[in-house]
From TrEMBL:
Example GO biological process: leukotriene metabolic process
Superkingdom to which the source organism belongs: Eukaryota
UniProt-recorded name of the protein: MAPEG family protein
Transmembrane segments: 12-38
Organism: Nymphaea colorata
Membrane topology note: Multi-pass membrane protein
Residues in the signal sequence: none
Any one GO molecular-function label of the UniProt entry: glutathione peroxidase activity
Sorted UniProt keywords: Membrane, Transmembrane, Transmembrane helix
Lineage summary: Eukaryota, Viridiplantae, Streptophyta, Embryophyta, Tracheophyta
Cellular component terms per the entry's GO annotation: endoplasmic reticulum; membrane; nuclear envelope
Keyword Membrane part of the UniProt annotation: yes
Length: 58
């Protein structure tokens, strides 16, 4: 289920990231990195099975 959530959001995010990266490549790279880190923490919390861990950073 966590993977499906990511697949639903990822295409539109990457399209917008690509469009923004044409004009502001450093900002887009930073936001892409933040997205990857946030997804890591989301998946870690989601796979733990504890809903309280989905909102924390570790």
């Amino acid at each position: 289920r966590g993977h499906q959530n990511s697949l639903e959001v990822m295409p539109i995010f990457f399209v917008l990231l690509l469009l923004g990266g044409v004009r502001h490549p450093l900002v887009a790279a930073g936001l892409g990195f933040v997205y990857i880190v946030a997804r890591y923490f989301y998946f870690t919390g989601y796979s733990s099975g504890d809903p309280a861990k989905r909102l924390t950073l570790g």
